[in-house]
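User: Modeling request: complex.
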Amino acid sequence: MMGPSVPWYLFVAGALFGIGTLGVLLRRSPLIVLLSLEIMLNGSNLALVTFSRHFGTVDGQVFAIAVMAVAASEVCVGLGLIVAVARKKLALDVDLFSELRG
Amino acid sequence: MIASVGNVLVWMVWLGAAAACLGSGIAVVTLTNPFYSALGLIGNLASLAVLYLLASAEFVAAAQVLVYAGAVMVMFLFVIAYLGGRADAPWAGGSTLFRVAAVVAGGALLVETLVALLWKSSRLSHSASVGPSFGSPAEIGRSFLTDHLLAFEVTSIVLLVAAIGGVVLGINPSSDEERAT
Amino acid sequence: MIAAAWLCLLAPLAGALAITFGGQRLSRRAAGWLSTASVFVAFGGAVVAFFAMVGRDTAAQRSELSTPFTWLSAGTFHVGMSILVDPVSIVMMLVVSGVGGLIVLYSIGYMEGEDEERRYFAYMAFFVFAMLLLVEGGNLLLLLAGWGLVGLASYLLIGFYHQRPEAVAAAKKAFIMNAIGDATMALGFFLLIAKTGTLSYGASFAAAPHLSSTTVNLVALGLLGGAVAKSAQLPLQTWLPDAMEGPTPVSALIHAATMVTAGVYLIVRTHPIFEQAHHVEDLAAGLGAATLVIAGLIALVQNDIKRVIAYSTMSQIGYMFLGAGLGAYANAMFHLVTHAFFKALLFLAAGVIIHHLAGEQDIRQMGGLKKFMPKTWLVFLVGSLSLVGVPPFSGFWSKDAIVATALARGGIYGWILFVAALFGALLTGIYTFRLFFRVFYGEPSALVLEHAGAAHGDHGHGTESATGHSEHAHGEAPQTMALPVAILAVLSTVGGLLQVAGAWHPFGRWIAQTGAPLVEPTTSQDWIVSVITVAIGLTGSWVAWAIYRTGRLAVPSAPGLQRLFEHKFYFDELYDAVVSRPAQLVASRLRTDFEGPYVEGSLVEIGHAGGDAGGLVARLQTGRLRVYAFAIAASLVVLGIVFLAVR
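Assistant: Request completed. Predicted assembly structure:
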């Protein structure tokens, strides 16, 4: 194929995943956490598409579309949660939602 | 010559898109203003679409732009706009130990990716050659409706559930009661 | 014969179970009569079996072992649920069920008005069953089972008045000392099983001559230990006087007539083993002789009527052990039978007195009862004469036979035993008549006047027909109490005629079918000894008469000896210091130093450790999303390393 070979794409995908992880772990606002989560998902999407190109089958792309659909649903629900929290006038801080504390 | 020029062009486009992708990703994670973070994510998605195009996944690229950047990010922006000032997200918080540990974990992931690619990627050198209709909607559609029909249907159920969930989360008890009386 | 023997064994058990399960549905009276009836049914069975046995001709035919099923089988070791009916066991069956029946009948009157009568009668029937199991058991294991069960019945009955701490303590003491005997017996049995592989009488007795002398001596010692504990001989005799805390009929049945004689029965039954272990036999005879002297000495200073009779029992069983140890099995068994008669008579008569005086047992509070309780005076006299061994009462015939056997044994040891037996006879005369004169003669004390003075009027005890407090034929005791006493008095008078030394030996021949005596006194020895023993016994009685009746002699003053006798030769103190205190000390030290910190502490520590571990794990549940996400990320990193390294 023209352009960079598969490992290059995979490097970008892995890097995106790592960046997204850092964002999930280090940010306190649930909105930003969700955005970082999207980045992670996109990283894995890229990996899927790359492998689909590498093996010459469309299965990877099909899966990437499914992932996109699931990501959209998850964002919908997550944002709904954030709005509900905000309506209760609570602070938007992930560390404060610790009622599952053992 | 044309091929080599084409190759160089492809390389340049790829490098630009990759840089934009990574840079916007970092921007999303580091900026304090959520609006800017959301914009960063839009940029991320757009550059990813370019990368998809370069990897012969045209339909996926189109879907990415339409669905992700078009619908999902619009939702995000709506919510950020609704929240207004409360959405501001400063960096403070978490114990130092935890922050260090998190950085180490994330860095370890990156390092592992590098290690995997540099030393173990011998089998990834030769990709298959594909025809012009490889990532076309027809191919995707055919695959969805034959090989992956179950996934297709299940995904639609997931979407339905999410929609219902969104509506349920959005119910405002006081306003509904007012309307009832 | 066998069917009658099984009936004899099982009837009292049925009675006990019926009373137990009948519970409140049975009236107290009904429980008493049911218990009595079951024991008399047993007696009937024993009589039938006896006559069936007499009808058979040879000794071999008269001994029958019946095994309906195998009780226990482990590898090559089998034990059947079997009963052995032979001349020795039939004698015991008759005595146990006969005298037992009379005593249970007596209890109906004696225990009337007590709390928990039904429990008492159930226990009595259970005891009779257990004792019958002991004597009818067809192998050593069943004998041991009966042994343990009579110990249990004794414990239950001594501690019958369980609200009294002295009674409870006495019951425990009896049980623990019996348990020591049980343990030595069990050890002996283990050795026997190890060497012969069987516990059945026939097989182990046949194997006895072939065992090594160490083995047979150890087994015999084990058996002797059990016999000594159960029969309250030296050195395990201290429980018997304390056992007088139980009701008087219990003392009569268990601690005079039957249970305490089980040791003698054991020696007679296992005589083939003892005959191989001569030193142990001599030891048994020696312990018997020592006990009879010491018990006689202690009885001289006792002031409780029941305790005098208890020490007298201990002393007479010493005679039986002496006889059995010398190998005169028939003489020992004969004395067992006559002793059952007159000792039970004495206890029951004492019970009548105690009942009449509303529970007073101290003879210093009694005196002058002769004119108030003439019939009791008469039977007590009969019993005392029998005990001292005055002809023609039964004790004479049996005791003298044993003393003659001691003489006939010869050797220095034989002379020592003979002299001890004679000294014992002297003491018997003294303490028996000391008791007799103190209780029935002299000035009536205030207590006597208060209770017995009104005997012929207000103090009528309930008759069968509830006509209220009216004078009835006996005046001293209700019919249920008087009848057994009368029967026993008759038996004490004529029972001795079962065997007249030197002239008529049906009893001796009967027992000899099972075990031939090792020593037989000659006729002239018999007569000489009889004369000497009677003379000595009468001398003792005269001494008592002189001191206590007429006051001609004064009680010799020997304060040291007096203290020694009153403290029962300090055996209790010795055992307390050597056994009881160290055991308690060890137990309490173990509790504080070992069980507390280590056993209990370790459990507590395990609990704490569990809690701490839980606490540690709980720290993971921070509830914070980021921490969970971090955990996932970290696991992912680790997995990645693993995959990279492996592939």
